[in-house]
């Protein structure tokens, strides 16, 4: 009974600390082969990950890391999932229609890259967990929670969580799962000396923090931690908070009591599927990244396929449509976190400004921003396509300058946009507005 009490006390402390650190939601998921992960290999095999080869990372046995956390982090026993609201009191993309302006995804407006903001809070939770377990470290019960000596489990010592992650952008999956794996993911698979150096020394507590950079599908563990359910648009949805949520996870070698999975409350609603301009949601809970505007504007390198351009509308970085139309986001609260308030000029930015942005201005304006992920080439490429979809011939002088741009990708996109604006048919902005 004492062991169960200590497990419950630690779990409660973790959640309390998460709330104190600024997370609105926190829960604990078990590490086991969850049914949702069974579909991941098929998703990869179908080519739905597009050019995101890091999604295909495999272990030494050739198994996909993201298909099983047991394979990627065999020492992990629990996943602490924390969520923070990033919604701001600004209009949704479906509520604006200025042809001279583009759309940057809501999560990228923030004054600080969300990877850094969420990681900083995760470390508070991790440190409290370590301190708590450290105080109990000589207690035999807690030692048993860390490792069952009789099982022969080899808890290999891992680096302390959180090699600083480079800013990356979120898009596909739960809309924030396109970050390229960084040092942390590579380190988690490395072997080092056995934590059980002596028969009397308690084994070390192992933890590892991730914000979009780990070898796991965060939204699946968020569901089993009770944070929310996976919506038909593949985003995590919470009944009170909606879907404007950043997720952060802490893997731990402690086997904590898991929370109950969140029930699916999407019902018969298909508004997200019906509203997608590029038909990227090929079925409920299934996303083809190759068609997703977020993927195309952020992850896709080089030229965007011509048959995808018109459906992109005036999006220049990411897409919020499937979340904007979700009934659960009608009354989603706005965040009070200063880091997630919008930077000046990023809500509905001027398209000509983005298309003609210099290298110096790009670096300065988007310092510490996930928008750096798409690079200046990608942002200007996207802006040129958005201009073509604007239906506004006043942009033609700008486009004709871009046709001669030294960046061949930008020049090719601008040429397409000139041809698009020169057509006598109805503008794409009108058809896009009708579908939205």
Question: Would you mind describing this structure in some detail?
Answer:
With 436 residues, the protein is an alpha+beta fold. It has a domain at 2-252. Helices cover 34% and strands 9% of the residues. Residues 138-202 and 426-436 have low confidence and may be disordered.
Q: What's the short version?
A:
The chain is α+β, with helices and mostly antiparallel strands and 436 residues long. The protein has a domain at 2-252. The protein contains 17 helices and 10 strands.
Strand and helix layout:
Blueprint lengths: L1 H19 L4 E6 L9 H6 L23 H4 L5 E8 L17 E2 L9 H22 L4 H7 L36 H6 L18 E4 L7 H7 L4 E2 L5 E2 L7 E8 L18 H5 L5 E3 L2 E2 L5 H7 L6 H4 L5 E3 L3 H4 L26 H5 L3 H7 L9 H16 L5 H8 L4 H15 L5 H8 L1
Parallel strand pairs: 3-10
Antiparallel strand pairs: 1-2, 2-7, 4-7, 5-6, 8-9
In round numbers, the mean pLDDT is 85
Structural category: alpha+beta
| SSE order, one letter for each helix or strand | HEHHEEHHHEHEEEHEEHHEHHHHHHH
Number of strands: 10
What's the total helix number?
Answer: 17
Gap between N and C termini: 56 Å
> What is Rg?
23 Å
Q: pLDDT under 50 segments (min length 5)?
A: 138-202, 426-436
Tell me what portion of residues adopts beta-strand conformation.
5-15%
Instruction: Please state how the strands of the largest beta sheet are arranged side by side.
Output: 1-2-7-4
Largest sheet: 4 strands, antiparallel
Multimerization status: single chain
The percentage helix is 25-40%
Q: So what's the overall shape?
A: elongated
């Amino acid at each position: 009974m004492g062991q169960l009490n200590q497990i419950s006390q630690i779990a409660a402390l973790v959640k309390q600390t998460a709330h104190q650190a600024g997370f609105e939601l926190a829960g604990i998921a078990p590490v086991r082969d969850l049914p949702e992960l069974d579909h991941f290999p098929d998703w990869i095999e179908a080519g739905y990950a597009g050019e995101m080869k890091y999604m295909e990372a495999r272990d030494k046995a050739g198994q996909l890391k993201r298909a099983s956390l047991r394979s990627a982090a065999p020492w992990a026993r629990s996943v602490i999932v924390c969520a923070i609201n990033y919604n701001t009191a600004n209009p949704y993309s479906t509520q604006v229609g200025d042809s001279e302006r583009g759309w940057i995804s809501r999560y990228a407006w923030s004054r600080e890259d969300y990877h850094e903001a969420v990681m900083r809070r995760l470390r508070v939770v991790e440190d409290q967990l370590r301190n708590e377990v450290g105080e109990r470290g000589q207690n035999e019960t807690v030692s048993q929670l860390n490792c069952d000596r009789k099982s022969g489990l080899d808890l290999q010592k891992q680096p302390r969580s959180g090699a600083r992650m480079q800013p990356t952008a979120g898009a596909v999956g739960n809309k924030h799962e396109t970050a390229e794996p960084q040092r942390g993911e590579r380190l988690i698979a490395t072997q080092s000396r056995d934590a059980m150096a002596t028969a009397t020394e308690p084994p070390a507590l192992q933890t590892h923090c991730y914000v979009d950079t780990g070898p796991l599908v965060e939204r699946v563990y968020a569901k089993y931690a009770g944070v929310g359910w996976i919506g038909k648009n593949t985003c995590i949805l919470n009944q009170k908070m909606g879907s404007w949520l950043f997720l952060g996870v802490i893997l731990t070698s402690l086997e904590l009591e898991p929370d109950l999975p969140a029930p699916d409350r999407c019902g018969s609603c298909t508004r997200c599927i019906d509203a997608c301009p590029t038909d990227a949601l090929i079925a409920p809970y299934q996303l083809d990244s190759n068609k997703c505007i977020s993927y195309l504007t952020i992850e896709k390198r080089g030229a965007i396929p011509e048959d995808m351009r018109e459906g992109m509308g005036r999006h220049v970085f990411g897409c919020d449509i499937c979340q904007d139309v979700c009934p659960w986001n009608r009354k989603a609260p706005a965040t009070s976190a200063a880091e997630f308030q919008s930077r000046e000029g990023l809500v509905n930015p001027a398209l000509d400004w983005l298309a003609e942005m210099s290298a110096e201005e790009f670096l300065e304006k988007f310092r510490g921003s996930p928008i750096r992920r798409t690079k200046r080439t990608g942002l200007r490429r996207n802006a040129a396509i958005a201009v073509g979809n604007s239906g506004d011939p006043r942009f033609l002088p700008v486009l004709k300058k871009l046709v001669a741009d030294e960046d061949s990708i930008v020049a090719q996109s601008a040429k397409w946009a000139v041809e698009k604006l020169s057509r006598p048919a109805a503008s794409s902005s009108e058809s896009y507005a009708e579908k939205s």
